[in-house]
Amino acid sequence: MIMLDRWIDAGRRAWLPCPSCSFAGPLWLLGSDLWWVWVQCPTCLTRVWINTHASHGGPRPAELPDVWPG
Ligand SMILES: [Zn+2]
Q1: What percent of the chain has pLDDT over 70?
Q2: Is-contact 39 27, C-beta < 8 A?
Q3: Residues whose CB is less than 8 angstroms from the CB of residue 28 and which lie 6 or more positions away in sequence, other chains included
Q4: Which of 38, 35, 28 shows the shortest CA–CA distance to 70?
Q5: Ligand 1 centroid to residue 22 C-alpha, Å
Q6: CA 4, 70, 18: angle at the middle one, nearest 5?
Q7: Residue 59 Cα to ligand 1 middle (Å)
Q8: Beta carbons within 10 angstroms of residue 40's beta carbon
Q9: How much is the pLDDT for 18?
Q10: CA 54 to chain CA centroid, nearest Å
């Protein structure tokens, strides 16, 4: 399961799985905007925007958030 509710902490990390290499996190937090977080994977260095709104929108807990290369 993915814990989307804890995508930010004080250390500029985002506890999300990497959509590219499946690294389990934390990803480096580069920025955020409302439901969106701009993260970089420390393992494969992929940068992606991740939509965390999926965690607020309804019963889709097993689904990955929408991601695409930035
Ligand atoms: Zn990665």
Answers
A1: 60
A2: yes
A3: 12, 13, 14, 39, 40, 41, 42
A4: 38
A5: 6
A6: 40
A7: 26
A8: 17
A9: 92
A10: 11
For the whole model, what pTM was predicted? 0.60
What are the domain boundaries of the chain? 13-51
Ligand 1 center to 24 CA (angstroms)? 9
Query: What one-letter code names the amino acid at 15?
Result: W
Compute the distance from residue 28 Cα to the ligand 1 centre, in Å. 11
Q: How many angstroms does the Cα of residue 41 sit away from the middle of ligand 1? A: 5
Token pair for 40 = 């970089």
Looking at residue 55, its pLDDT comes to 54
Task: Find the 16 Cα to ligand 1 centroid distance in Å.
Answer: 10
For ligand 1, the distance from its centroid to the CA atom of residue 8, given in whole angstroms, is: 18
